[in-house]
Amino acid sequence: LVCPIMDARRQQAYYGIYDVSNEVPVEIEKPDAAPIEVVLQKAKETKREVIFLGDGVPVHREALQQGLNVAWKEAPAHMNRQSAASVAVLGARYYDEGKIVSAEAFRPDYLRKSQAEREREARLAAGEKHDRDE
Hints:
This protein is an alpha/beta fold. The protein is built from 4 helices and 5 strands, in the order βββαβαβαα. Strands 3-2-1-4-5 form a 5-stranded mixed beta sheet. Strand 4 (50-53), helix 2 and strand 5 form a beta-alpha-beta unit. The longest helix is centred in the C-terminal third of the chain and has 19 residues, at 115-133. The relative contact order is 0.13.
């Protein structure tokens, strides 16, 4: 299993868990944003070895070391982060297979609202409540 984790700040991570033992990866846990404790719990529930990668690994390394009772390891440094070279390798593979994917087909998948959006909504909600009280 592979679990990419990206630091989402405030002891949270963006993550997903994938079974990559076959040609086509299988999504075990859909991408989400959650406290690191939730990520650890989801990894434990698999009862399988998990390879962690991404910029969240160094940030959450202590939690990984203390909170996991399943076998786990970090991806090697040369495979631990996304890179242009990885995209090029995937592009070459798609080319060899005759697959065509346009840039327009890719869209970001926002897992939660930004902090600025959440704070704005809180201010508006507080202002609306205040306006009603007057």
